[in-house]
Structures are given as C-alpha cells and as structure tokens.
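Dear colleague,

Thank you for sharing your sequence with our group. We've completed the structure prediction you requested, and as agreed, I am returning the results in plain text so they can be pasted directly into your records. Please verify that the sequence below matches your submission; if there's any discrepancy, let me know and we will rerun it promptly.
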Amino acid sequence: MTEIDWRENGVRVIPGNQLDSNTAQTPGMNRAAAINHARVGAQKLWACTVTIHPNAKTGAHHHGPVESVIYVVRGKARMRWGEKLEFMAEAGPGDFIYVPPYVPHQEINADPGAPLDCVLMRSDQEPVVVNLNIAPVEAPESVYWVDPGHPHPHE
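Please find the predicted structure tokens below.
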C-alpha cells in the first residue's frame, strides 16, 4: 500500500487575494476562481467569488449540465429565470441560491448603491457558461423561496 503524502495532498488554503480571474465570464459579472483542478487538484467541485456592480445585471445564461449554488455574502441579489426570464426571487446576505442544470437565468444586483458579492460553487470542473439572447419580460412573476420552516411572507 502506497503511503499518502498528506502535506502535499491535504488541505489547501487559497488566499482571497490570489484568485484566478482567467475563467469563463458573463457580461455584467466578474468571476474569480478559487477551487478547481488546476489550482488545488479538485476532482468534482469548482468554486469562485462573484461581484456584480451596483444596479448591474448579467446577461441571460445557463451552465449546461452543471448544478450551481450561490451564497450571498453582501448585497441584494435578484434572480430571474425561465425561458423568458419570467420568474423572479430575491436573496440577501446569508442566503443560498440553487440553480439546477440548464435553467436560463440572470443575476441582478438589486441595490443601486452597493456591490453584490457572492461565493459560487458548481458540481463540475468545467466552468460551463452558455450566454443566451433572451429578451426578458417586463414584469416577472415573483416566486418566494419558502420551506416548512419559512412560510410565505403573505400568509
């Protein structure tokens, strides 16, 4: 049995000032990779920071077969999704957003005065970004993120 060198093959810390912005980008958003195969040897995960400038929005896009999780660190995120971006929900600091595979979506910074900072994690090494040409609807349908512990705000 081969002994594993845990010093070289163990925990890795990626300093926040050493992230890699040489990754797939979407207009209106800056991504900087922290965890991927090239940097740390990750096999199944990919993670980065995301900054959306005040009152800015990304272009519509999807991530192919990849699942995504977004954790809001600072700011107010407004997500739109659907074939015409007809659905909408908002998230704030401490909230998680799940984006299933192939879902057309758009991230929006809903705060005109502050950046939106998030951490993005994906289920695959391929940073798939398929930019779409979608004309969004004017009045998206609000969809509240509720679960048994957090009832609809109007109930």
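Summary note from our side: The chain has a mean pLDDT of 84.

Kind regards,
the structure core
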